[in-house]
Design goal:
By secondary structure, this protein is of the alpha/beta class. It has a single domain, classed as NAD(P)-binding Rossmann-like Domain (Rossmann fold), CATH 3.40.50.720. It is 42% helix and 16% strand. It is built from eight helices and seven strands; from the N terminus they run E-H-E-H-E-H-E-H-E-H-E-H-H-H-E. Strands 3-2-1-4-5-6-7 form a seven-stranded parallel beta sheet, with helices on both faces. The structure holds NADPH dihydro-nicotinamide-adenine-dinucleotide phosphate and 2-hydroxyethylsulfonic acid (8X3). The site of NADPH dihydro-nicotinamide-adenine-dinucleotide phosphate (NDP) has 30 residues, from helix 1, helix 4 and helix 6. NADPH dihydro-nicotinamide-adenine-dinucleotide phosphate binds next to helix 1, helix 4 and helix 6.
Length: 251
């Protein structure tokens, strides 16, 4: 059987980067995306021995750029079997009365609107072919709201709703839709959230064992390699040390 093609947003770091590595070694060709071109080029070189790979650099917030870049994919890359909507981050962790409006814009624009722009560009091909799989990376923050998480939680609740809406609307085309909702995963996520404050970022995982990005990548591989009649629709994955957004067993 020929290899399937997966497009991964946010492949320059964390969960997306690990997913690219795992899929490359498990019979997928890859379109890797992100803003940091140098990292994309390096990853392309690293994985070229395992699969066909190409990279696209764009900001998911930029609607025109998303449309132009994905619209210009050569015919050989047009058939995207698996879309992994992973690009996203938290920006800030503040009570709602002290939140920064630019942080709110970033989270809504990237986590929600960016996911929609990319999906809008890819879904028509899946509909035409009556097949495909969309994996949306949500979060436990899309299932619960925690103190100071306000707008990030809102953005991930939106991803949860969009995931469910996609599954309903694309059902008639045989397109699978899955949400993967992790708890604490150690990536660049907390460095971004705390704007480079390493101490605050490190404290997020202090005294507990977080998930690794590989844990999520392996889960994504499992989900997208089930038989054609099986769709895993919605998963929450916690580290063993975590029971909810606010209950974490720290030594
Ligand atoms: P990282 O910060 O390590 O990776 C984020 C990725 O998103 C990077 O590759 C980054 O690429 C990309 N990205 C961010 N903003 C944009 C943008 N405007 N345009 C294009 N790409 C962008 O974090 P994670 O790997 O942890 O996060 C991946 C996903 O997992 C996110 O959706 C996050 O919300 C979710 N998640 C993370 C958890 C965690 O604890 N880490 C838990 C639950 C969910 P670049 O900067 O090169 O553009
Ligand atoms: C990332 C996990 O708990 O920081 O989505 O929101 S959390």
């Amino acid at each position: 059987m020929s290899k399937r093609t997966a497009l991964i947003t946010g492949a320059t770091s964390g969960i997306g980067l690990s997913t690219a590595r795992v899929l490359a070694q498990n019979d997928f060709n890859l379109i890797i995306c992100g803003r940091r071109e140098e990292r994309l080029r390096k990853l392309e070189q690293e994985l070229r021995g395992y699969c066909e790979i190409t990279s696209l650099s764009f900001d998911v917030r930029d609607k025109a750029s998303v449309e132009a870049t994905l619209g210009a994919l050569p015919i050989s890359w047009k058939n995207i079997d698996v879309l992994i909507n992973n690009a996203g981050n938290a920006h800030g962790l503040s009570p709602i009365d002290q939140g920064d409006i630019d942080d709110w814009d970033a989270m809504i624009d990237i986590n929600v609107k960016g996911l929609l722009y990319v999906s809008k560009a890819i879904i028509p091909g899946m509909v035409d072919r009556n097949s495909g799989h969309i994996v949306n990376i949500g979060s436990i923050a899309g299932k619960e709201v925690y103190p100071n998480g306000n707008v990030y939680c809102a953005s991930k609740h939106a991803v949860d709703a969009i995931n469910n809406g996609m599954r309903l609307d694309l059902n008639r085309y045989g397109i699978k839709v899955t949400a993967i909702n992790p708890g604490l995963v150690e990536t660049e996520f907390s460095m971004v959230r705390f704007k480079g404050d390493k101490e605050r970022a490190d404290n997020t995982y202090k005294g507990m064992i977080p998930l690794t990005p590989e844990d999520i990548a392996e889960t994504i591989l499992f989900v997208i390699t089930r038989p054609a009649h099986v769709n895993i629709s919605d998963l929450i994955i916690f580290p063993t040390d975590q029971a909810s957004s606010t209950i974490v067993n720290r030594s």
